[in-house]
Amino acid sequence: MPPRIHIVGVGGPGTSAIAIILREMGGVVSGSDMVESPTVDRLRSLGVAVNVPHDAGVIAECEIVTHSAAVRETNVELVAARQAGKTVWSRAQMLGWISTQARTVAVAGTHGKTTTTTLLTLMLRAAGRDPGYLIGAEVPQLESSAHWGSDVFVVEADESDSSHRAIAPDSTILTNVDTDHLDEHGSFAGIVASFDSYLSEVEGIKVVCADDATALQLARRHGAITYGISDATASTEINTVDVRATDLRFAGDVSHFVAHMAQGSIAVSLALRGEHNVRNCLAALAMAVQLGVEPGVAAEAVRNFAGVRRRFDLRATEGGATFVDDYAHLPAEITAVLRAVRTDNVGWKRVVAVFQPNRFNRMAMMSDQYRDAFVDADVVVITDIYASGTDRIEGVTGQLVVDAVRAAHPTARVEWLAERADLVDFVAREVRDGDLCISMGCGDIETLPDEVVARKRELSRGR
After folding, report:
1. To 10 degrees, the CA torsion angle through 171, 177, 180, 183?
2. CATH node for 5-90
């Protein structure tokens, strides 16, 4: 462990988790951020010295300076570090170094990484083990989003900044392969090639989804253990799928199924809704069993799963309406979440889907792919793009998503409300008794339920 590591932008979910791990490893860790936050307060309580705002002078005592992809190269601390000849690592490079310090199990794929990583961690803990983990969201059942344990290290391997290529895992899960981060990989073929190369370098256990056609091809090429749902994998010779789910039944927020594997069959009741989460659970179950966890212990670990923040996160009920927040921001994710709602809608009269597109470069390249994502919603409300550190592109707005959905579904009710105040007021007036309002995206849309509830209360008082 170097004598001191400084993390620029330490208040972010990914970088704060790295700070926690480095601190628990025994390192001297400092960091900086633009604003004070509860995350910054927590890091300070753990012994991480955090300065707000950024200050070029703080890097003087550091040996290594690391940063997230969201931090610009012109940041004063990064500039000072390079001028001083310090070693400067990206978050991906730092994560890669950490992964060499333990037996690492990485969870890769376009969707489902956070939930799968969490489920696997809980299964290992239920078996009395002390896994390390790094999870890109808050998990109510875990003390923190990161921990440096005494057993395997379970980590999300993110393709957005090619972290999955920097990490050196002993074993891996690949949940799926979909189009995203074209600015990083250039094309879908580039994404596939990246995961192909990634799997080729993993020497241990490989668990790959058979329900995703591209992932299945990679699984066969690399001799992976496969998992899937029977109906979805029927066309791929279901008997060749190693871990499979049958007898799916959805009741409210619980998914019931039977998992079949070489060790036998076991009934599972997962406290999450939707087929996509059944797949996430199968992936974690397959890996957990390979790591020595008894199937019954693994199944029991997910029975009372409290979920992951911003994954179908119940935020409020007001005026007979239910408000849910979800991180879904890609077409397949939105489709899966809304389909799960329709599978067992517990009596909701209408589904009002509010979507905040994310990143100008993403929308410039793939806004048309959202055309069929909202078919299970009764009302679709689109607002403008959340930049997430990307530069504005002339002519690229949330209207592109609106146009794509309207062109594919002319009779669908699709509303375009670019300004936040207009969005909040519209949703507050539109959502009524018996509705489910689900806000989706990975930007500041997460506060929309609170804003809408506050506005509904104002309206009820005649304001």
Report:
1. 60
2. 3.40.50.720
Residue 418: predicted pLDDT: 95
- Position 4 pLDDT exceeds 70: yes
What value does the mean pLDDT of the chain take?
89
Contact 336, 212 (CB under 8 A): no
CATH number of 102-301: 3.40.1190.10
Domain 102-301 shares a fold with domain 313-460: no
Burial of 144 (0-12, 13-18, 19+ CB in 10 A): middle
436 DSSP 8-state letter: E
> 157: which 2 tokens?
């391997």
What are all long-range contacts of 363-368, with beta carbons under 8 Å and residues at least 24 apart? 363/396, 363/397, 363/398, 363/400, 363/401, 364/393, 364/396, 365/182, 365/183, 366/179, 366/180, 366/182, 366/331, 367/396, 367/400, 367/401, 367/404, 368/400, 368/404
Indicate the domain borders of the chain: 5-90, 102-301, 313-460
Q: What are phi and psi of 29, to 5 degrees?
A: -125, 135
The CATH code for residues 313-460 is 3.90.190.20
pLDDT of res. 161:
66
pLDDT tens digits, residue range 243-283? Answer: 999 999 988 788 999 999 998 999 999 988 888 899 999 99
The band of 180, judged by pLDDT with boundaries at 50, 70 and 90, is low
Rounded-to-10 torsion of CA 281, 287, 288, 289 = 110
Residue 116 and residue 284 in contact, taking contact as beta carbons nearer than 8 Å: yes
Q: What percent of the chain has pLDDT over 90?
A: 64
CA distance 231 to 59: 56
- On the CB side of 74, CA atoms within 13 Å amount to 0
Residue ranges of alpha helices (H) inside 6-111 are: 13-24, 38-45, 76-83, 91-99
- C-alpha 82/C-alpha 59 separation (Å) is 10
